[in-house]
Prior knowledge:
Blueprint: H1 2-24, H2 42-45, H3 57-70, E1 74-81, E2 84-95, E3 100-101, E4 108-109, H4 113-127, H5 162-166, H6 183-189, H7 198-206, H8 222-236, H9 240-249, E5 258-259, E6 275-276, E7 282-284, E8 292-294, H10 295-299, H11 306-309, E9 311-313, H12 315-322, H13 337-344, E10 358-359, E11 365-371, E12 374-380, E13 385-391, E14 393-394, H14 401-415
Parallel strand pairs: 6-14
Antiparallel strand pairs: 1-2, 1-13, 2-3, 4-9, 5-9, 7-8, 10-11, 11-12, 12-13
Helix pairs in contact: 3-14, 4-8, 4-9
Amino acid sequence: MKLKVILTIVFFIALFLGERAISFSFKKENDTFTNKPETVPLSYKITGTLSDLPETHVIDSFVIDLLDRNKIIGASVSITKSGKLIYSKGFGYADIENRDTVTPQNLFRIASVSKLITAVAIMKLVEDEKLGVHDQVFGPDGILNDSIYLNYKDKRFEKITVHQLLNHTAGWNGHKVEPVFNSLYVARVMNVAPPASMSTILEYALSKRLDYNPGKTYSYSNLGYCILGEIIEKVTGMDYEEYVQFALLHPLGIYDMHIGKSFYNEKFSNEVRYYDMSENIRVWAFDGKKELVTFEYGGNDMKLIAAAGGWVASSTELSKLMVAIDGFNSRSDILSESTISYMTDIRNKHRTLIGWKGTDGRGAWYRTGTLAGTTALLMRHNNDITWTVIFNTTTKKRKHIHNEIARTMFKALHQVKEWPDMDLFNYDPDEPKLANASN
Protein backbone atom coordinates (compact mmCIF):
# COMPACT_ATOMS: atom_id res chain seq x y z
CA MET A 1 0.00 0.00 0.00
CA LYS A 2 2.81 2.41 0.93
CA LEU A 3 4.59 1.59 -2.31
CA LYS A 4 1.43 2.37 -4.27
CA VAL A 5 1.06 5.75 -2.55
CA ILE A 6 4.72 6.58 -3.19
CA LEU A 7 4.41 5.65 -6.88
CA THR A 8 1.29 7.79 -7.18
CA ILE A 9 3.08 10.79 -5.65
CA VAL A 10 6.08 10.26 -7.94
CA PHE A 11 3.76 10.10 -10.95
CA PHE A 12 2.07 13.42 -10.15
CA ILE A 13 5.42 15.10 -9.41
CA ALA A 14 6.74 13.90 -12.77
CA LEU A 15 3.56 15.09 -14.49
CA PHE A 16 3.81 18.50 -12.81
CA LEU A 17 7.47 18.93 -13.74
CA GLY A 18 6.74 17.81 -17.27
CA GLU A 19 3.99 20.40 -17.66
CA ARG A 20 6.32 23.07 -16.27
CA ALA A 21 9.01 22.03 -18.73
CA ILE A 22 6.53 22.31 -21.59
CA SER A 23 5.31 25.74 -20.50
CA PHE A 24 8.84 27.00 -19.88
CA SER A 25 9.90 25.92 -23.36
CA PHE A 26 7.62 28.57 -24.83
CA LYS A 27 9.09 31.41 -22.80
CA LYS A 28 11.62 33.91 -24.03
CA GLU A 29 14.86 33.37 -22.13
CA ASN A 30 16.94 36.57 -22.22
CA ASP A 31 16.69 37.40 -25.93
CA THR A 32 16.24 34.17 -27.87
CA PHE A 33 12.88 33.10 -29.26
CA THR A 34 11.48 29.62 -29.29
CA ASN A 35 9.79 28.33 -32.43
CA LYS A 36 6.24 28.53 -31.18
CA PRO A 37 4.65 29.91 -34.39
CA GLU A 38 2.30 32.45 -32.87
CA THR A 39 5.08 34.15 -30.89
CA VAL A 40 7.58 34.61 -33.73
CA PRO A 41 7.77 38.38 -34.29
CA LEU A 42 6.79 39.72 -37.70
CA SER A 43 10.20 41.40 -37.92
CA TYR A 44 11.79 37.93 -37.89
CA LYS A 45 9.70 36.82 -40.86
CA ILE A 46 10.35 39.65 -43.31
CA THR A 47 13.48 40.97 -44.99
CA GLY A 48 14.32 44.38 -46.38
CA THR A 49 14.40 42.94 -49.91
CA LEU A 50 10.60 42.57 -49.78
CA SER A 51 10.46 46.38 -49.94
CA ASP A 52 12.83 46.64 -52.91
CA LEU A 53 10.04 47.70 -55.24
CA PRO A 54 9.90 50.16 -58.14
CA GLU A 55 7.01 52.03 -56.52
CA THR A 56 8.94 52.92 -53.36
CA HIS A 57 12.50 53.06 -54.67
CA VAL A 58 12.36 56.86 -54.42
CA ILE A 59 11.97 56.57 -50.63
CA ASP A 60 15.30 54.73 -50.42
CA SER A 61 17.17 57.60 -52.07
CA PHE A 62 15.65 60.22 -49.77
CA VAL A 63 16.49 58.19 -46.63
CA ILE A 64 20.04 57.45 -47.77
CA ASP A 65 20.60 61.14 -48.48
CA LEU A 66 19.26 62.04 -45.00
CA LEU A 67 21.66 59.58 -43.37
CA ASP A 68 24.63 60.81 -45.39
CA ARG A 69 23.94 64.48 -44.59
CA ASN A 70 23.72 63.84 -40.87
CA LYS A 71 26.34 61.09 -40.54
CA ILE A 72 23.75 58.62 -39.20
CA ILE A 73 25.24 55.17 -38.62
CA GLY A 74 22.07 53.10 -39.00
CA ALA A 75 18.32 53.51 -39.46
CA SER A 76 15.10 51.54 -39.71
CA VAL A 77 12.07 52.81 -41.63
CA SER A 78 8.55 51.35 -41.85
CA ILE A 79 5.47 52.73 -43.61
CA THR A 80 1.82 51.69 -43.54
CA LYS A 81 -0.95 52.65 -45.94
CA SER A 82 -4.63 51.93 -45.22
CA GLY A 83 -3.69 49.63 -42.35
CA LYS A 84 -1.22 47.61 -44.45
CA LEU A 85 2.53 47.44 -43.97
CA ILE A 86 3.86 48.32 -47.40
CA TYR A 87 7.48 49.19 -46.59
CA SER A 88 10.00 48.06 -43.96
CA LYS A 89 13.74 48.42 -44.51
CA GLY A 90 17.03 48.91 -42.72
CA PHE A 91 19.78 51.31 -43.79
CA GLY A 92 23.42 51.59 -42.76
CA TYR A 93 24.98 49.71 -39.87
CA ALA A 94 23.51 48.18 -36.74
CA ASP A 95 27.12 47.87 -35.51
CA ILE A 96 29.69 49.63 -37.65
CA GLU A 97 32.63 48.07 -35.81
CA ASN A 98 31.45 44.58 -36.78
CA ARG A 99 30.01 45.70 -40.15
CA ASP A 100 26.54 44.40 -39.22
CA THR A 101 23.90 46.01 -41.41
CA VAL A 102 20.45 47.05 -40.20
CA THR A 103 17.55 44.70 -41.00
CA PRO A 104 13.85 44.75 -40.04
CA GLN A 105 14.77 42.46 -37.11
CA ASN A 106 16.90 45.03 -35.33
CA LEU A 107 15.72 46.54 -32.06
CA PHE A 108 16.35 50.21 -31.26
CA ARG A 109 15.83 52.23 -28.13
CA ILE A 110 12.80 54.39 -28.84
CA ALA A 111 13.28 56.87 -25.98
CA SER A 112 10.20 59.06 -25.35
CA VAL A 113 8.11 57.12 -27.85
CA SER A 114 7.78 54.96 -24.72
CA LYS A 115 5.42 57.61 -23.33
CA LEU A 116 2.94 56.84 -26.08
CA ILE A 117 3.03 53.16 -25.08
CA THR A 118 2.48 54.06 -21.42
CA ALA A 119 -0.40 56.39 -22.29
CA VAL A 120 -2.11 53.69 -24.36
CA ALA A 121 -1.67 51.20 -21.48
CA ILE A 122 -3.21 53.68 -19.03
CA MET A 123 -6.15 54.31 -21.34
CA LYS A 124 -6.66 50.56 -21.71
CA LEU A 125 -7.05 50.39 -17.91
CA VAL A 126 -9.50 53.30 -18.09
CA GLU A 127 -11.57 51.49 -20.71
CA ASP A 128 -11.47 48.34 -18.57
CA GLU A 129 -12.83 50.48 -15.68
CA LYS A 130 -9.79 49.77 -13.49
CA LEU A 131 -8.81 53.42 -13.40
CA GLY A 132 -10.21 56.90 -14.02
CA VAL A 133 -8.37 59.78 -15.68
CA HIS A 134 -9.49 62.11 -12.90
CA ASP A 135 -8.50 59.76 -10.08
CA GLN A 136 -6.36 61.29 -7.34
CA VAL A 137 -2.76 60.00 -7.41
CA PHE A 138 -1.35 60.93 -3.99
CA GLY A 139 -2.69 61.25 -0.48
CA PRO A 140 -4.61 58.83 1.80
CA ASP A 141 -7.35 58.54 -0.83
CA GLY A 142 -4.98 58.43 -3.78
CA ILE A 143 -3.84 55.50 -5.92
CA LEU A 144 -0.29 55.62 -4.57
CA ASN A 145 -1.27 55.79 -0.90
CA ASP A 146 1.44 53.51 0.49
CA SER A 147 2.84 54.79 3.79
CA ILE A 148 6.21 55.71 2.21
CA TYR A 149 4.40 58.17 -0.10
CA LEU A 150 2.44 59.99 2.61
CA ASN A 151 5.29 62.11 3.99
CA TYR A 152 4.93 64.92 1.44
CA LYS A 153 5.40 68.51 2.52
CA ASP A 154 3.34 70.15 -0.20
CA LYS A 155 -0.44 69.57 0.15
CA ARG A 156 -0.81 70.33 -3.56
CA PHE A 157 0.37 66.78 -4.27
CA GLU A 158 -3.13 65.67 -3.26
CA LYS A 159 -4.56 67.59 -6.24
CA ILE A 160 -2.55 65.69 -8.88
CA THR A 161 -4.69 63.48 -11.13
CA VAL A 162 -3.91 60.79 -13.69
CA HIS A 163 -4.97 63.18 -16.44
CA GLN A 164 -2.44 65.78 -15.30
CA LEU A 165 0.37 63.20 -15.38
CA LEU A 166 -0.70 62.23 -18.88
CA ASN A 167 -0.69 65.79 -20.24
CA HIS A 168 2.35 67.11 -18.31
CA THR A 169 0.47 69.54 -16.08
CA ALA A 170 1.03 67.83 -12.70
CA GLY A 171 3.19 70.67 -11.37
CA TRP A 172 6.85 69.82 -11.99
CA ASN A 173 9.18 72.06 -13.98
CA GLY A 174 10.61 69.74 -16.61
CA HIS A 175 13.36 72.21 -17.45
CA LYS A 176 15.10 71.33 -14.19
CA VAL A 177 17.30 68.24 -13.93
CA GLU A 178 14.79 65.46 -13.36
CA PRO A 179 15.46 62.95 -10.57
CA VAL A 180 14.98 59.96 -12.90
CA PHE A 181 18.02 61.18 -14.84
CA ASN A 182 20.00 62.02 -11.70
CA SER A 183 19.53 58.85 -9.67
CA LEU A 184 23.06 58.76 -8.24
CA TYR A 185 22.45 62.12 -6.56
CA VAL A 186 19.04 60.99 -5.30
CA ALA A 187 20.53 57.80 -3.85
CA ARG A 188 23.13 59.84 -1.98
CA VAL A 189 20.56 62.33 -0.64
CA MET A 190 18.20 59.53 0.42
CA ASN A 191 21.08 57.58 1.94
CA VAL A 192 20.48 54.38 -0.05
CA ALA A 193 22.86 52.29 -2.11
CA PRO A 194 22.60 52.92 -5.86
CA PRO A 195 20.93 52.24 -8.15
CA ALA A 196 18.00 54.20 -6.73
CA SER A 197 14.63 52.48 -7.15
CA MET A 198 11.53 54.25 -8.44
CA SER A 199 10.08 54.25 -4.92
CA THR A 200 13.19 56.08 -3.67
CA ILE A 201 12.97 58.56 -6.55
CA LEU A 202 9.32 59.18 -5.74
CA GLU A 203 9.99 59.63 -2.02
CA TYR A 204 12.63 62.19 -2.94
CA ALA A 205 10.28 64.03 -5.31
CA LEU A 206 7.54 64.12 -2.67
CA SER A 207 9.95 65.69 -0.19
CA LYS A 208 10.19 68.79 -2.42
CA ARG A 209 7.61 71.41 -3.24
CA LEU A 210 5.85 71.44 -6.60
CA ASP A 211 6.89 74.16 -9.03
CA TYR A 212 3.34 74.89 -10.20
CA ASN A 213 -0.22 74.32 -9.08
CA PRO A 214 -1.44 71.03 -10.58
CA GLY A 215 -3.46 71.50 -13.76
CA LYS A 216 -2.34 75.11 -14.33
CA THR A 217 0.95 74.94 -16.27
CA TYR A 218 2.25 72.65 -19.00
CA SER A 219 5.85 71.49 -18.45
CA TYR A 220 7.16 68.31 -20.07
CA SER A 221 7.90 65.77 -17.33
CA ASN A 222 9.66 62.41 -17.55
CA LEU A 223 9.02 61.92 -13.84
CA GLY A 224 5.27 62.18 -14.45
CA TYR A 225 5.32 59.29 -16.91
CA CYS A 226 7.51 57.18 -14.62
CA ILE A 227 4.81 57.70 -11.98
CA LEU A 228 2.22 56.46 -14.50
CA GLY A 229 4.30 53.28 -14.69
CA GLU A 230 4.02 52.96 -10.91
CA ILE A 231 0.25 53.46 -11.17
CA ILE A 232 0.01 50.63 -13.70
CA GLU A 233 1.86 48.32 -11.32
CA LYS A 234 -0.28 49.34 -8.34
CA VAL A 235 -3.60 48.92 -10.17
CA THR A 236 -2.76 45.65 -11.94
CA GLY A 237 -0.48 43.99 -9.40
CA MET A 238 1.82 43.21 -12.33
CA ASP A 239 5.24 44.41 -13.38
CA TYR A 240 4.89 47.39 -15.74
CA GLU A 241 6.60 45.67 -18.67
CA GLU A 242 4.67 42.43 -18.17
CA TYR A 243 1.32 44.23 -18.07
CA VAL A 244 2.01 46.21 -21.24
CA GLN A 245 3.09 43.06 -23.05
CA PHE A 246 0.16 41.01 -21.73
CA ALA A 247 -2.65 43.55 -22.21
CA LEU A 248 -1.45 45.59 -25.15
CA LEU A 249 1.41 44.21 -27.21
CA HIS A 250 0.80 40.46 -27.35
CA PRO A 251 -2.90 40.82 -28.29
CA LEU A 252 -1.69 42.89 -31.26
CA GLY A 253 0.81 40.21 -32.28
CA ILE A 254 3.81 42.24 -31.07
CA TYR A 255 6.34 39.92 -29.44
CA ASP A 256 9.71 41.67 -29.63
CA MET A 257 9.26 44.87 -27.66
CA HIS A 258 10.93 45.04 -24.24
CA ILE A 259 12.38 47.36 -21.65
CA GLY A 260 15.97 47.87 -22.72
CA LYS A 261 19.17 47.38 -20.77
CA SER A 262 21.68 50.02 -19.77
CA PHE A 263 25.06 48.51 -20.62
CA TYR A 264 26.43 47.27 -23.93
CA ASN A 265 27.11 43.75 -22.66
CA GLU A 266 23.42 43.44 -21.62
CA LYS A 267 21.84 44.36 -24.94
CA PHE A 268 19.56 42.00 -26.86
CA SER A 269 21.25 39.95 -29.55
CA ASN A 270 19.30 41.72 -32.30
CA GLU A 271 19.66 45.19 -30.77
CA VAL A 272 21.72 47.82 -32.54
CA ARG A 273 24.78 49.55 -31.12
CA TYR A 274 24.30 53.21 -30.17
CA TYR A 275 26.42 56.19 -31.21
CA ASP A 276 26.23 59.66 -29.68
CA MET A 277 27.89 62.15 -32.04
CA SER A 278 26.50 65.18 -30.22
CA GLU A 279 28.45 64.86 -26.97
CA ASN A 280 31.73 63.13 -26.22
CA ILE A 281 31.70 63.16 -22.43
CA ARG A 282 31.81 60.51 -19.74
CA VAL A 283 29.74 60.30 -16.57
CA TRP A 284 29.65 58.13 -13.48
CA ALA A 285 27.66 54.94 -14.07
CA PHE A 286 24.18 55.05 -12.55
CA ASP A 287 24.76 51.79 -10.61
CA GLY A 288 27.30 53.38 -8.28
CA LYS A 289 30.25 51.17 -9.26
CA LYS A 290 32.38 54.29 -9.72
CA GLU A 291 33.06 53.67 -13.37
CA LEU A 292 33.17 56.44 -15.95
CA VAL A 293 30.90 55.52 -18.84
CA THR A 294 29.32 57.08 -21.91
CA PHE A 295 25.78 58.34 -21.63
CA GLU A 296 24.55 55.74 -24.09
CA TYR A 297 25.99 52.83 -22.08
CA GLY A 298 25.56 53.24 -18.34
CA GLY A 299 24.64 56.89 -18.04
CA ASN A 300 20.91 56.16 -17.76
CA ASP A 301 19.06 53.47 -15.83
CA MET A 302 16.76 52.08 -18.54
CA LYS A 303 14.68 50.13 -16.02
CA LEU A 304 14.11 53.25 -13.94
CA ILE A 305 12.95 55.33 -16.92
CA ALA A 306 10.99 52.43 -18.44
CA ALA A 307 7.58 54.10 -18.67
CA ALA A 308 9.03 57.41 -19.88
CA GLY A 309 11.81 56.27 -22.20
CA GLY A 310 12.94 52.67 -21.69
CA TRP A 311 11.39 50.57 -24.47
CA VAL A 312 13.27 48.95 -27.35
CA ALA A 313 11.46 47.97 -30.54
CA SER A 314 11.79 47.40 -34.25
CA SER A 315 10.18 49.88 -36.61
CA THR A 316 8.21 46.94 -38.02
CA GLU A 317 6.47 46.13 -34.75
CA LEU A 318 6.03 49.80 -33.88
CA SER A 319 4.03 50.03 -37.10
CA LYS A 320 1.76 47.28 -35.76
CA LEU A 321 1.09 49.44 -32.73
CA MET A 322 0.58 52.56 -34.84
CA VAL A 323 -2.22 51.05 -36.95
CA ALA A 324 -3.95 49.93 -33.73
CA ILE A 325 -4.19 53.47 -32.33
CA ASP A 326 -4.52 55.59 -35.49
CA GLY A 327 -8.30 56.00 -35.42
CA PHE A 328 -8.77 54.79 -39.01
CA ASN A 329 -11.31 52.11 -39.95
CA SER A 330 -8.92 50.25 -42.25
CA ARG A 331 -7.75 48.13 -39.32
CA SER A 332 -9.29 47.51 -35.89
CA ASP A 333 -7.98 49.73 -33.09
CA ILE A 334 -7.17 48.48 -29.61
CA LEU A 335 -8.78 51.59 -28.09
CA SER A 336 -12.25 53.01 -28.68
CA GLU A 337 -12.93 55.96 -30.94
CA SER A 338 -13.76 58.17 -27.96
CA THR A 339 -10.51 57.26 -26.20
CA ILE A 340 -8.42 58.01 -29.28
CA SER A 341 -10.27 61.32 -29.62
CA TYR A 342 -9.50 62.14 -25.97
CA MET A 343 -5.79 61.44 -26.56
CA THR A 344 -5.57 63.61 -29.68
CA ASP A 345 -7.99 66.49 -29.01
CA ILE A 346 -6.17 69.80 -28.62
CA ARG A 347 -9.33 71.76 -27.82
CA ASN A 348 -8.20 72.23 -24.23
CA LYS A 349 -6.62 75.20 -22.50
CA HIS A 350 -3.12 73.72 -22.72
CA ARG A 351 -3.57 72.41 -26.30
CA THR A 352 -1.82 69.22 -25.20
CA LEU A 353 -2.14 65.67 -26.47
CA ILE A 354 -2.02 62.46 -24.44
CA GLY A 355 1.00 60.29 -25.21
CA TRP A 356 1.56 61.96 -28.57
CA LYS A 357 3.97 64.90 -28.70
CA GLY A 358 2.12 67.16 -31.08
CA THR A 359 -0.21 67.70 -34.04
CA ASP A 360 -0.56 70.05 -36.97
CA GLY A 361 -4.22 70.50 -36.04
CA ARG A 362 -5.32 68.90 -39.31
CA GLY A 363 -5.17 65.22 -38.42
CA ALA A 364 -1.42 64.60 -38.34
CA TRP A 365 -0.09 63.38 -34.98
CA TYR A 366 3.55 62.76 -34.15
CA ARG A 367 5.69 61.34 -31.36
CA THR A 368 9.39 62.09 -30.98
CA GLY A 369 12.07 60.32 -28.98
CA THR A 370 15.68 61.17 -28.15
CA LEU A 371 18.23 59.57 -25.85
CA ALA A 372 22.01 59.43 -26.05
CA GLY A 373 22.63 57.28 -29.12
CA THR A 374 19.09 57.07 -30.47
CA THR A 375 16.55 59.20 -32.34
CA ALA A 376 12.97 58.23 -33.17
CA LEU A 377 9.99 59.82 -34.92
CA LEU A 378 6.51 58.37 -35.47
CA MET A 379 3.97 60.13 -37.66
CA ARG A 380 0.28 59.54 -38.40
CA HIS A 381 -1.09 61.44 -41.42
CA ASN A 382 -4.75 62.23 -42.05
CA ASN A 383 -4.75 60.16 -45.28
CA ASP A 384 -4.34 56.80 -43.50
CA ILE A 385 -0.55 56.72 -43.82
CA THR A 386 1.73 56.18 -40.83
CA TRP A 387 5.49 55.89 -40.71
CA THR A 388 8.25 55.16 -38.23
CA VAL A 389 11.89 56.23 -38.47
CA ILE A 390 14.49 55.21 -35.87
CA PHE A 391 18.25 55.97 -35.80
CA ASN A 392 20.97 54.41 -33.64
CA THR A 393 22.66 57.80 -33.63
CA THR A 394 22.25 61.22 -32.08
CA THR A 395 23.79 64.03 -34.08
CA LYS A 396 24.93 67.56 -33.37
CA LYS A 397 21.52 68.61 -34.72
CA ARG A 398 19.95 66.86 -31.73
CA LYS A 399 17.27 69.53 -31.23
CA HIS A 400 16.42 69.89 -34.91
CA ILE A 401 16.85 66.43 -36.40
CA HIS A 402 13.18 65.50 -35.99
CA ASN A 403 12.15 68.41 -38.21
CA GLU A 404 14.63 67.27 -40.85
CA ILE A 405 13.34 63.70 -40.68
CA ALA A 406 9.76 64.96 -41.11
CA ARG A 407 10.66 67.17 -44.08
CA THR A 408 12.52 64.30 -45.74
CA MET A 409 9.67 61.83 -45.28
CA PHE A 410 7.06 64.34 -46.50
CA LYS A 411 9.06 64.88 -49.69
CA ALA A 412 9.70 61.16 -50.16
CA LEU A 413 6.05 60.16 -49.71
CA HIS A 414 4.94 62.92 -52.06
CA GLN A 415 7.12 61.40 -54.78
CA VAL A 416 5.42 57.99 -54.60
CA LYS A 417 3.04 57.80 -57.55
CA GLU A 418 1.53 54.41 -56.78
CA TRP A 419 1.66 52.34 -53.59
CA PRO A 420 2.55 48.62 -53.61
CA ASP A 421 -0.40 46.25 -53.52
CA MET A 422 0.77 44.11 -50.61
CA ASP A 423 0.55 43.79 -46.84
CA LEU A 424 3.70 42.65 -45.05
CA PHE A 425 1.65 42.32 -41.85
CA ASN A 426 0.29 39.14 -43.47
CA TYR A 427 3.64 37.91 -44.75
CA ASP A 428 4.53 34.27 -44.10
CA PRO A 429 7.85 32.97 -45.49
CA ASP A 430 6.16 29.62 -46.15
CA GLU A 431 3.22 31.24 -47.95
CA PRO A 432 4.54 34.54 -49.36
CA LYS A 433 1.39 35.12 -51.40
CA LEU A 434 -0.37 36.05 -48.14
CA ALA A 435 1.40 39.40 -48.34
CA ASN A 436 -1.03 40.27 -51.10
CA ALA A 437 -4.09 39.15 -49.13
CA SER A 438 -6.56 41.67 -47.77
CA ASN A 439 -6.98 42.36 -44.07
